[in-house]
Amino acid sequence: MPPNSSFFARVKTPFQRKYGEVVFPAVLSPAMSPCVLAAAVKEEKTWLESLLHRHGAILFRGYDSSSTASDFNDVVEAFGYTELPYVGGAAPRTKVVGRVFTANESPPHRKIPFHHEMAHACIPEHPGKLFFFCEEEAASGGETPILLSYVVYEKMKEKYPDFVKRLEKVGLLYTRIMGEEDDPSSAIGRGWKSTFWTTDKIVAQHRAAKLKMKLEWTENGRVKTIMGPIPAIKCKEMMPTPRKIWFNSMAAAYTAWGDQWNDPKKTVSFGDGDPLPENIIHDCLKIMEEESIDVPWRKGDLLMMDNFAVLHARKPFTPPRRILAALCK
């Protein structure tokens, strides 16, 4: 276990969960007052990275000096990680300041299922670190459930060994239809122009090819995207030993990637094109719900996650609520 820090105090909260000797997530508050979070991060980056490697996620709470989007950007910059642009993602988002953009802007009554950021994308490098920041609390609801990915893998393998074996062998195929512009009513409503950061179809075609994504243009400016096959299981260096993780968007796609152009049950399949068994997907969702913990947001909270170790979701909420995000390599 990492030694204590002179800048950060470990805090116990009712929503934490224990796996062996590891408490999930780690929760930190200022060990001294006043304390500027960005400055503390610069002083204790190595200690914080060791803590993240062990716990998978860190919630920073009680930092009054970190209350704006610019403050959040300063903290992300303080870690010194390379920025990862949000190219190829499905969720509608808006850039706010610096490296900061809004979290998924889908309607507040919709639940966003568990997923790893960009796990559905065949990109050269997936986000390694994911940051969330609470700029404004919800009137009610709006918690962010989080879940250790290796736990899902182990429970699914125990219950459905043949299914998991096939997933490891053939991976997953993701299919989605996008319009030209963003559709804020859909959790996957990002249009192809903002997905590929261009209004030119030829440029979009080239950028899709770099993501190993096939495009089939349809009428009215829409495009069908085919991604994969993509590995559904990865191996992650974790404490105390490497573990296999459930790094995919299978359950999220199958149950939530539906809108005016997409049937969610057709958005994801085995990598060889065969349909997925619905009963197993819903059982996987049940396992995720049972093993997850809900992070209740307070203004100024900052949640840092290892995107490979931890899945995250979003519960419905009553506005206002504003959560900001940043992705890093």
What does this structure look like?
There is one protein chain. This protein is an alpha+beta fold and 329 residues long. It is 26% helix and 29% strand. It has helices at 37-55, 69-79, 149-159, 161-170, 192-195, 201-210, 250-256, 278-291; strands spanning 8-10, 17-19, 22-24, 26-30, 57-60, 95-97, 100-102, 112-115, 129-136, 140-141, 144-148, 172-178, 213-217, 223-230, 234-236, 243-245, 268-270, 293-295, 302-306, 310-314, 317-318, 322-328. The protein has an eight-stranded mixed β-sheet with strand order 1-4-5-19-9-22-7-6, with helices on one face. A hairpin with a 2-residue loop joins strand 6 and strand 7 (100-102). Helix 1 (37-55) packs across helix 2 and helix 3 packs across helix 4. The longest helix has 19 residues, at 37-55. It starts with 7 loop residues before the first strand and ends with a strand. The mean pLDDT is 92. It comes from Perilla frutescens var. hirtella. Keywords: Oxidoreductase. GO terms for molecular function: oxidoreductase activity. This is 2-oxoglutarate and oxygenase superfamily protein.
Top keywords for this entry?
single chain, 329 residues, alpha+beta, eight-stranded mixed beta sheet, four-stranded antiparallel beta sheet, 22 strands, 26% helix, 29% strand, globular, AlphaKG_dependent_hydroxylases, TauD-like_sf
What's the helix and strand layout?
Layout lengths: L7 E3 L6 E3 L2 E3 L1 E5 L6 H19 L1 E4 L8 H11 L15 E3 L2 E3 L9 E4 L13 E8 L3 E2 L2 E5 H11 L1 H10 L1 E7 L13 H4 L5 H10 L2 E5 L5 E8 L3 E3 L6 E3 L4 H7 L11 E3 L7 H14 L1 E3 L6 E5 L3 E5 L2 E2 L3 E7 L1
Parallel strand pairs: 4-5
Antiparallel strand pairs: 1-4, 2-3, 5-19, 6-7, 7-22, 8-20, 9-19, 9-22, 10-21, 11-18, 11-20, 12-14, 12-17, 13-14, 15-16
